[in-house]
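Human: I would love a firmer grasp of how sequence relates to backbone shape in proteins. Take your time, and here it is.
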Amino acid sequence: MAARIVVFGATGYTGRLVAERLVAQGARPVLAGRDDQRLAELAERLGGLETAHADAMRQNSVFDLVGKGDVLISTVGPFMKWGRAAVRAAVAAGAVYLDSTGEPPFIRRVFEEFDGPARRSGAALLPAMGYDFVPGALAGALAVEAAGAAARVDVGYYALGAGLSSMSSGTRESMVGVTFTDAFAYRDGRLTTVRSAERVRSFDVQGRRREAVSVGGAEHFGLPAAYPELSEVNVYLGWFGPLARPLQAGTLVGEYVAKLPFARAAMQFWAEQAAALLRGPEAGTTPGGTSWIAAEAYDAGGAKLSEVHLSGVDAYDFTASFIAWAARHPVLGTGALGPVEAYGLEALERGAAAAGLTRVP
């Protein structure tokens, strides 16, 4: 029996885009979610696709979605709230799991909590298979390959021509959650917990220096696994422009305020309410703009050895197209994997190009 591709969260903003891209590439995915009417309407519009009822709050309904060798795509976020059911379902079935998360705490949970069980069951878990954080893995790997013998790689993400109104409601809620949790980094050959926005640095983007703040990312797991000689991996987000250093200062203050009883929960609640007031892109559309990813490789002494830049379509367009590509290509290995391990560097570069992201000459 041929493996099925299941899109869990198909009627959400990102899930709908992924389903559309899969159909455009010739696949007939199963659309899964908790709103049967919306599922039926989307399935009909996309050519009469199969649907399945599933709710992250009812774990058994998610387990029923996949069998051995199937592909489960999860776009149900925020992932720290709702994401574990799909991971557990994939592990139990020995399936391939892909998700669209950009939430560092959830990525860390997948790698640290579910890697062993996935290896034992034959499942392959690939979290963060969208704009956060596939392009950085690709750019970082290309920089390491060009350097020859790198000890450190820094990656920076930029969305040119985009703002808060370009983010879906799910993305904004996820970002609020990330802001109020600890981040992590790969330093001295091991993963370590650090404060969000602990570091600020700039990269050259379209001929000018642009600042970015440090975050946790899937690259902290995937790049050292693919390149064991790396002793340090840093990931930065440059979406905040001149607000990078005020944001860094704010997270430092917030670290102390959050130690007060109930302060962290209250701060997160009100931030989520404020974020929900903003409108996002219309369903089935992407906001436009340009993605830019920079990666720099260094030796143990801090000398820069190589530099790679990627550019292309906006984050949502890339995410939907790349996940659709990844769902239709074989994965190399089991357990929790980064994209370089999962597909190999050459195939990964082809997949990113097919999704609209290419190397800047």
The two ends are 44 Å apart (CA to CA). The chain has two domains: 5-130+317-340, 134-316.
